[in-house]
Amino acid sequence: MTETDEIDPAAAPSGPGCVECERDGGWWFHLRRCAACGHVGCCDSSPAQHATAHARGAGHPILTSYEPGEFWFYDDRDGSLAEGPDLADPRHHPGDQTVPGPAARVPRDWVQRLH
Questions:
Q1: Which site among 30, 46, 88, 100 is 20 to 30 Å from 23 CA-CA?
Q2: Does pTM surpass 0.70?
């Protein structure tokens, strides 16, 4: 994938965790970042699936991993994976942040709650 109106390399991430889970007191398994605006949301394995909801609601179909060591881009329209441009830092959530997270809100039975 290359820089387009669907990918803005200058858009900084919205924060270290899922915007909606932080607001609502939820938790996430893995994090995804919107390549157009930087919105950070939780992945589809997470209970709330905020990243995909943002992609579809905002019309921003390109997501990228917000996990350390992962550099793929995903197109929600067709499910394709590809490499893409470097994005504004930070490229992933803080290295000391737990997965799942945030640690204080992850329930003991979190594995059973994954999608």
A1: 88
A2: yes
